[in-house]
Amino acid sequence: MAAALLLASCGTGNKYSVSMTLPDDSLNGDTVCMTDYDSGDTIATGIVTGTTLKFEGSTEKDFLGSVVVGGGRQIFVVEPGTITIDNAGKVEGSQLNAALDSLGNDMQAVMGQAQGLYEKYATGAIDSLAYTHAADSLQNAYVEVLKSFYTSNKDKSMAIIAFIQYMQYAELGLKEAEAEVAGAPALAASKRVGKMLEGLRNKERTAEGSMFVDFTVTDENGKEQKLSDYVGKGDYVLADFWASWCGPCRAEIPNIKKIYDKYNGKGLTVLGIAVWDAPADTQKAIEELQIPWAQITNAGSVPTDLYGINGIPHIILFAPDGTIVARDLRGEAMIAKVAEVMKKK
Rounded to whole angstroms, how far apart are CA atoms 239 and 333? Predict the structure, then answer.
């Protein structure tokens, strides 16, 4: 009996309750899932009652919960106890969520300064040199906010959010990132962080001067498409990793068209590789933007994982033999690089 009471007591101590208040009752009766932000696994389900959504369960350690509802996503720390989230997304009843909220406030403070700085530049209050100098300082401040948070919470799940952004903004190399992760239990156990480290390894494997890595994907009609159908065939290949919903990708199309119009059929092939996009949306964008070059569609994350690409557009120039000449080309620098290699052909 004593043992049973002890076990019951331990189980009660690990229980959590998450109660969300929604803006309206339009989802009344719907079933909503709470997933683990890091793994994507479904942890619990709840039925909306009026404007209230509730999840209950037990956990021995904190984890990041994620709920997609009302067109938005709410991310919060799940730990034993009672947690409430109001219709504005404010989380209460948890020390870890209070700390995560503080991080959000610190990040917003720096971003607010950055917005104010840009407005000064846009109105001519400061020149480009002053803007660049101040913007660099603010980015450094933003990076320090992120680093301070995750280094202070190395054994907490919420460190994952700060570290992922830190990796991107600080532009960590593989060795630097691995060293940071090695000393942080929560980061070392994170699937998201692990995937980003693998991306850095793949980026090193596909650095300039390396031979291209082939991939095979199936398009919306069931037809196999390979990168090697285009690369390594005797022409330079300018490959644009893009998506229909990506504004910067669409903005880069006119620059690629200049290259296509000048060099297509003269020793250069232009290739679009549609990633992270629905085929129907890709095709619509191709028609809207009047893109004439060949496309590999429905590629998902296969190419971006292989090449360690975490942001698009990402444009790679391949040599006639398949060697990677340059990566992450954009704008005038891309046009100049293509002109440089085509002079040698």
Answer: 15
Q: How many other β-carbons are positioned within 10 Å of the β-carbon of residue 168?
A: 14
pTM: 0.76
Burial 99-115 (b: 16+ CB within 10 A, else e): bbbebeebbeebeebbe
Contact 62, 83 (CB under 8 A): no
Q: Are 80 and 13 in contact (CB under 8 A)?
A: yes
Question: Tell me: the pLDDT tens digits for 184-215?
Answer: 999 999 999 999 999 999 999 999 999 999 99
Asked if omega into 313 is within 30° of 0 (cis), the reply is yes
Tokens of 59: 């956990």
Instruction: Give 3-state DSSP helix, strand, coil % of the chain, rounded to 5.
Output: 45, 25, 30
Report the candidate in 193, 197, 194 with the shortest Cα–Cα distance to residue 159. Answer: 193
- C-alpha closest to that of 254 among 297, 291, 287, 295: 291
Which two structure tokens, joined as six digits, stand for 182? 């090695």
First to last CA, the chain: 85
> Which of 310, 308, 301 shows the shortest CA–CA distance to 273?
301
